Fold:
Amino acid sequence: MDNSSGVGVLDKAALVLSALESGPATLAGLVGATGLARPTAHRLAVALEHHRMVARDMQGRFILGPRLAELAAAAGEDRLLATAGPVLTHLRDITGESAQLYRRQGDMRICVAAAERLSGLRDTVPVGSTLTMKAGSSAQILLAWEEPERLHRGLQGARFTATALSGVRRRGWAQSIGEREPGVASVSAPVRGPSNRVVAAVSVSGPIERLTRHPGRMHAQAVIDAAARLSEALRRSG
Structure:
């Protein structure tokens, strides 16, 4: 093997993962693609399955496992956070409102970055805050582009409807007025990873007195632009 690291078992495991990059493979397919002996290919694939780096499809073929997606998401989050600070600060400065970045975590969403309004009445969401996926414009964004079954599950008990999410997909942004918290309005837009999947939501939020009952009219374009800058940063480093 040309790119040998000198650690044989890792080199062979890397061969197995690389072989699965092009799609599902039977054990015979793995042997053919890697050149490994059948018992070795089997032993490594099963060991990688134990660590969730390999999984099986409905036909029992080997496929890349969920752990790889989790690691990729973590790497993407690091890139996202490295870029988020200046983008959120700029968004806060041009809107005059607090700006946040949310990622989904299971049935909740977590604030992973924020730029607070410097004075006056603020809608403070500290970094690390865990909020509901059932209300708020960023929850709408993080749910709107999910596959149908997950979207349907997410709508159960939500303060917004399937029709509202259809509008979010059409417009490319979401707004909420007193949905998560009385008196607070927000506007959000999606951040997309290299595969175009929605990986985060950028938001501005503040009191309804300032954002009015049509906050999207005031701030949708600024939020969309901020989300586009973050999406572009992820594409460049993806």
Remarks:
- The chain is about 50% helix and 20% strand.
- Residues 66-95 form the longest helix (30 residues).
- The chain has two domains: 8-74, 79-236.
